[in-house]
Amino acid sequence: MIEIVLFAMFALTAISCALGVVFHKNPVHCALLLVAVLLSLSGLFIMLHAQFIAALQVIVYAGAIMVLFLFVLMLLSFRRDEDVLTPGAAKGFGFLFALIVLVELLWVALSPGGGERGAQTPAAILSDDFGSPAAIGRILYTTWLYPFEITSILLLVAVVGAVLLAKRKFSG
Amino acid sequence: MTGPAVPLAAYQILAGILFTIGVIGVLVRRSALIVFMSIELMLNAVNLSFVAFSRQHGSMDGHIFVFFVMAVAAAEVAIGLAILIAIFRKRETANVDDVHLLRG
Questions:
Q1: Which domains are delineated in chain B?
Q2: What kind of fold does domain A1-80 have according to CATH?
Q3: Chain A nearest CA to B19, separation (Å)
Q4: Which tens digits make up the pLDDT trace of A93-138?
Q5: pLDDT tens, B42-73?
Q6: Which residues numbered 33-52 in A keep a CB inside 8 Å of some CB on B?
Protein backbone atom coordinates (compact mmCIF):
# COMPACT_ATOMS: atom_id res chain seq x y z
CA MET A 1 0.00 0.00 0.00
CA ILE A 2 2.69 2.46 1.00
CA GLU A 3 4.51 1.53 -2.20
CA ILE A 4 1.54 2.65 -4.29
CA VAL A 5 1.26 5.92 -2.36
CA LEU A 6 4.98 6.59 -2.85
CA PHE A 7 4.74 5.76 -6.55
CA ALA A 8 1.79 8.12 -7.01
CA MET A 9 3.61 10.88 -5.14
CA PHE A 10 6.83 10.57 -7.15
CA ALA A 11 4.98 10.13 -10.44
CA LEU A 12 2.77 13.20 -9.93
CA THR A 13 5.79 15.29 -8.88
CA ALA A 14 7.74 14.13 -11.92
CA ILE A 15 4.92 14.81 -14.41
CA SER A 16 3.93 18.22 -13.01
CA CYS A 17 7.55 19.41 -12.75
CA ALA A 18 8.28 18.10 -16.27
CA LEU A 19 5.36 20.16 -17.59
CA GLY A 20 6.87 23.11 -15.73
CA VAL A 21 10.23 22.52 -17.42
CA VAL A 22 8.61 22.67 -20.85
CA PHE A 23 6.20 25.57 -20.31
CA HIS A 24 7.77 27.89 -17.72
CA LYS A 25 8.96 31.26 -18.97
CA ASN A 26 12.01 31.71 -16.75
CA PRO A 27 14.91 29.39 -17.78
CA VAL A 28 16.31 29.28 -14.24
CA HIS A 29 12.97 27.99 -12.94
CA CYS A 30 12.99 25.41 -15.75
CA ALA A 31 16.40 24.14 -14.63
CA LEU A 32 15.32 23.90 -10.98
CA LEU A 33 12.10 22.10 -11.94
CA LEU A 34 14.22 19.66 -13.97
CA VAL A 35 16.23 18.97 -10.78
CA ALA A 36 12.93 18.15 -9.04
CA VAL A 37 12.06 15.71 -11.85
CA LEU A 38 15.47 14.03 -11.55
CA LEU A 39 15.16 13.70 -7.77
CA SER A 40 11.69 12.15 -7.93
CA LEU A 41 12.97 9.72 -10.58
CA SER A 42 15.78 8.72 -8.24
CA GLY A 43 13.12 7.98 -5.61
CA LEU A 44 11.43 5.69 -8.14
CA PHE A 45 14.79 4.00 -8.82
CA ILE A 46 15.11 3.20 -5.12
CA MET A 47 11.62 1.68 -5.19
CA LEU A 48 12.81 -0.49 -8.10
CA HIS A 49 15.79 -1.81 -6.06
CA ALA A 50 18.32 0.22 -8.08
CA GLN A 51 20.11 1.91 -5.19
CA PHE A 52 23.35 2.47 -7.07
CA ILE A 53 21.58 4.02 -10.07
CA ALA A 54 19.56 6.24 -7.72
CA ALA A 55 22.73 7.55 -6.09
CA LEU A 56 24.30 8.03 -9.51
CA GLN A 57 21.21 9.94 -10.63
CA VAL A 58 21.53 12.40 -7.74
CA ILE A 59 25.30 12.82 -8.05
CA VAL A 60 25.75 12.89 -11.82
CA TYR A 61 22.46 14.35 -13.07
CA ALA A 62 21.13 16.53 -10.27
CA GLY A 63 24.66 17.41 -9.23
CA ALA A 64 27.04 17.72 -12.15
CA ILE A 65 24.89 18.10 -15.25
CA MET A 66 22.39 20.55 -13.76
CA VAL A 67 25.20 22.67 -12.29
CA LEU A 68 26.62 22.84 -15.83
CA PHE A 69 23.20 23.98 -17.11
CA LEU A 70 22.83 26.66 -14.45
CA PHE A 71 26.41 27.79 -15.03
CA VAL A 72 25.78 28.36 -18.74
CA LEU A 73 22.45 30.01 -17.90
CA MET A 74 24.16 32.53 -15.65
CA LEU A 75 27.09 32.96 -18.05
CA LEU A 76 24.96 33.84 -21.06
CA SER A 77 22.36 35.92 -19.17
CA PHE A 78 19.33 34.93 -21.21
CA ARG A 79 16.64 37.54 -21.26
CA ARG A 80 13.10 36.45 -20.42
CA ASP A 81 11.21 35.88 -23.64
CA GLU A 82 7.54 36.68 -23.64
CA ASP A 83 6.74 34.21 -26.40
CA VAL A 84 8.61 31.09 -25.37
CA LEU A 85 6.94 28.78 -27.86
CA THR A 86 7.83 28.59 -31.50
CA PRO A 87 5.30 30.57 -33.55
CA GLY A 88 2.97 29.56 -36.34
CA ALA A 89 2.15 26.15 -37.72
CA ALA A 90 5.30 24.55 -36.26
CA LYS A 91 3.75 24.69 -32.79
CA GLY A 92 0.57 22.93 -33.91
CA PHE A 93 2.55 20.22 -35.68
CA GLY A 94 4.74 19.84 -32.58
CA PHE A 95 1.77 19.11 -30.34
CA LEU A 96 0.27 16.82 -33.00
CA PHE A 97 3.44 14.74 -33.30
CA ALA A 98 3.79 14.60 -29.50
CA LEU A 99 0.23 13.30 -29.25
CA ILE A 100 1.02 10.58 -31.81
CA VAL A 101 4.15 9.61 -29.83
CA LEU A 102 2.12 9.44 -26.61
CA VAL A 103 -0.53 7.21 -28.17
CA GLU A 104 2.13 4.89 -29.58
CA LEU A 105 4.01 4.63 -26.27
CA LEU A 106 0.85 4.00 -24.23
CA TRP A 107 -0.28 1.42 -26.75
CA VAL A 108 3.03 -0.42 -26.40
CA ALA A 109 2.99 -0.13 -22.59
CA LEU A 110 -0.55 -1.44 -22.28
CA SER A 111 -0.44 -4.17 -24.93
CA PRO A 112 -0.26 -7.62 -23.34
CA GLY A 113 2.97 -8.59 -25.09
CA GLY A 114 4.00 -12.07 -26.10
CA GLY A 115 6.91 -14.41 -25.71
CA GLU A 116 8.34 -15.95 -22.61
CA ARG A 117 9.74 -12.59 -21.39
CA GLY A 118 6.63 -10.54 -22.17
CA ALA A 119 4.96 -8.12 -19.79
CA GLN A 120 2.74 -10.90 -18.43
CA THR A 121 5.62 -12.75 -16.79
CA PRO A 122 5.57 -12.33 -13.01
CA ALA A 123 8.27 -10.18 -11.47
CA ALA A 124 11.48 -12.04 -10.78
CA ILE A 125 12.56 -12.87 -7.24
CA LEU A 126 15.57 -10.66 -6.61
CA SER A 127 18.79 -11.73 -4.98
CA ASP A 128 19.91 -9.85 -1.89
CA ASP A 129 22.61 -7.82 -3.63
CA PHE A 130 20.44 -6.80 -6.61
CA GLY A 131 21.34 -3.25 -7.61
CA SER A 132 24.13 -2.88 -5.08
CA PRO A 133 27.38 -1.17 -6.19
CA ALA A 134 29.32 -4.42 -5.65
CA ALA A 135 27.03 -6.45 -7.93
CA ILE A 136 26.97 -3.75 -10.63
CA GLY A 137 30.74 -3.33 -10.44
CA ARG A 138 31.20 -7.06 -10.87
CA ILE A 139 29.32 -7.24 -14.19
CA LEU A 140 30.54 -3.81 -15.31
CA TYR A 141 34.17 -4.91 -15.10
CA THR A 142 33.63 -8.38 -16.56
CA THR A 143 30.80 -8.63 -19.10
CA TRP A 144 30.73 -4.93 -20.00
CA LEU A 145 34.46 -4.17 -19.75
CA TYR A 146 35.00 -3.07 -23.37
CA PRO A 147 31.96 -0.74 -23.55
CA PHE A 148 33.12 0.73 -20.24
CA GLU A 149 36.59 1.48 -21.62
CA ILE A 150 35.13 2.94 -24.82
CA THR A 151 32.94 5.21 -22.68
CA SER A 152 36.03 6.62 -21.02
CA ILE A 153 37.45 7.49 -24.45
CA LEU A 154 34.11 9.11 -25.36
CA LEU A 155 34.24 11.28 -22.25
CA LEU A 156 37.84 12.28 -23.03
CA VAL A 157 36.82 13.31 -26.57
CA ALA A 158 33.88 15.27 -25.14
CA VAL A 159 36.12 17.14 -22.70
CA VAL A 160 38.64 18.06 -25.41
CA GLY A 161 35.86 19.09 -27.80
CA ALA A 162 34.07 21.21 -25.20
CA VAL A 163 37.26 23.08 -24.32
CA LEU A 164 38.04 23.64 -28.00
CA LEU A 165 34.52 24.83 -28.87
CA ALA A 166 34.16 27.18 -25.92
CA LYS A 167 37.56 28.78 -26.40
CA ARG A 168 37.33 32.41 -27.38
CA LYS A 169 39.64 32.32 -30.37
CA PHE A 170 41.79 29.77 -32.15
CA SER A 171 45.43 30.73 -31.64
CA GLY A 172 47.54 30.26 -34.77
CA MET B 1 7.96 -12.96 -0.95
CA THR B 2 5.14 -11.30 -2.86
CA GLY B 3 5.65 -9.36 -6.06
CA PRO B 4 5.99 -5.60 -6.25
CA ALA B 5 2.84 -3.63 -5.47
CA VAL B 6 3.23 -1.31 -8.44
CA PRO B 7 2.95 -3.17 -11.76
CA LEU B 8 5.49 -2.82 -14.55
CA ALA B 9 2.91 -1.17 -16.81
CA ALA B 10 2.54 1.76 -14.40
CA TYR B 11 6.25 2.53 -14.70
CA GLN B 12 6.06 2.18 -18.49
CA ILE B 13 3.10 4.57 -18.69
CA LEU B 14 4.93 7.11 -16.51
CA ALA B 15 8.04 6.78 -18.69
CA GLY B 16 5.89 7.26 -21.81
CA ILE B 17 4.28 10.41 -20.42
CA LEU B 18 7.63 11.90 -19.40
CA PHE B 19 9.10 11.07 -22.81
CA THR B 20 6.17 12.78 -24.53
CA ILE B 21 6.60 15.92 -22.42
CA GLY B 22 10.25 15.92 -23.50
CA VAL B 23 9.20 15.59 -27.16
CA ILE B 24 6.85 18.56 -26.74
CA GLY B 25 9.69 20.60 -25.25
CA VAL B 26 12.05 19.78 -28.14
CA LEU B 27 9.43 20.59 -30.77
CA VAL B 28 7.80 23.76 -29.47
CA ARG B 29 10.33 25.65 -27.31
CA ARG B 30 12.47 28.34 -28.93
CA SER B 31 15.32 28.49 -26.44
CA ALA B 32 18.08 26.01 -27.29
CA LEU B 33 18.84 25.58 -23.60
CA ILE B 34 15.31 24.41 -22.82
CA VAL B 35 15.55 22.06 -25.81
CA PHE B 36 18.61 20.52 -24.15
CA MET B 37 16.72 20.18 -20.87
CA SER B 38 13.89 18.44 -22.71
CA ILE B 39 16.39 16.00 -24.22
CA GLU B 40 17.59 15.21 -20.69
CA LEU B 41 13.97 14.62 -19.76
CA MET B 42 13.58 12.11 -22.59
CA LEU B 43 16.80 10.31 -21.64
CA ASN B 44 15.56 10.03 -18.06
CA ALA B 45 12.23 8.62 -19.18
CA VAL B 46 14.13 5.90 -21.07
CA ASN B 47 16.29 5.26 -17.99
CA LEU B 48 13.17 4.73 -15.89
CA SER B 49 11.92 2.23 -18.45
CA PHE B 50 15.26 0.36 -18.39
CA VAL B 51 15.32 0.15 -14.59
CA ALA B 52 11.69 -0.99 -14.43
CA PHE B 53 12.36 -3.82 -16.90
CA SER B 54 15.51 -4.70 -14.96
CA ARG B 55 13.43 -5.08 -11.80
CA GLN B 56 10.84 -7.15 -13.63
CA HIS B 57 13.31 -9.62 -15.11
CA GLY B 58 15.77 -9.69 -12.19
CA SER B 59 18.65 -8.89 -14.54
CA MET B 60 21.05 -6.04 -13.86
CA ASP B 61 21.91 -5.39 -17.52
CA GLY B 62 19.36 -2.56 -17.52
CA HIS B 63 21.29 -0.83 -14.76
CA ILE B 64 24.44 -1.05 -16.88
CA PHE B 65 22.55 0.51 -19.79
CA VAL B 66 21.42 3.38 -17.57
CA PHE B 67 25.04 3.83 -16.52
CA PHE B 68 26.10 4.20 -20.16
CA VAL B 69 23.17 6.49 -20.96
CA MET B 70 24.28 8.79 -18.14
CA ALA B 71 27.86 8.83 -19.44
CA VAL B 72 26.71 9.68 -22.97
CA ALA B 73 24.31 12.32 -21.59
CA ALA B 74 27.18 13.97 -19.72
CA ALA B 75 29.29 14.04 -22.88
CA GLU B 76 26.34 15.35 -24.91
CA VAL B 77 25.61 18.17 -22.45
CA ALA B 78 29.25 19.24 -22.34
CA ILE B 79 29.51 19.41 -26.15
CA GLY B 80 26.03 20.88 -26.61
CA LEU B 81 26.52 23.68 -24.12
CA ALA B 82 29.92 24.47 -25.65
CA ILE B 83 28.26 24.78 -29.07
CA LEU B 84 25.54 26.92 -27.51
CA ILE B 85 28.16 29.26 -26.03
CA ALA B 86 29.92 29.49 -29.41
CA ILE B 87 26.64 30.33 -31.18
CA PHE B 88 25.65 32.84 -28.52
CA ARG B 89 29.02 34.56 -28.78
CA LYS B 90 28.77 34.87 -32.56
CA ARG B 91 25.06 35.70 -33.00
CA GLU B 92 23.88 37.03 -29.62
CA THR B 93 20.94 34.63 -29.60
CA ALA B 94 20.05 31.18 -28.37
CA ASN B 95 16.74 30.82 -30.19
CA VAL B 96 16.70 27.82 -32.47
CA ASP B 97 14.45 29.70 -34.92
CA ASP B 98 17.09 32.38 -35.45
CA VAL B 99 19.88 29.95 -36.35
CA HIS B 100 18.93 28.93 -39.87
CA LEU B 101 22.08 29.27 -41.98
CA LEU B 102 21.55 25.81 -43.45
CA ARG B 103 18.09 26.70 -44.74
CA GLY B 104 19.61 27.88 -48.04
A1: 9-96 (1.10.287.3510)
A2: Four Helix Bundle (Hemerythrin (Met), subunit A) (1.20.120)
A3: 8
A4: 989 999 999 999 999 888 876 555 555 667 778 888 888 899 999 9
A5: 999 999 999 999 998 888 999 999 999 999 99
A6: 34, 37-38, 41, 44-45, 47-50, 52
CA–CA dist A93, A56 (Å, integer): 36
- State the amino acid at position A55 in one-letter form: A
DSSP 3-state of A148: helix
The predicted model scores a pTM of 0.90
ipTM over 0.95: no
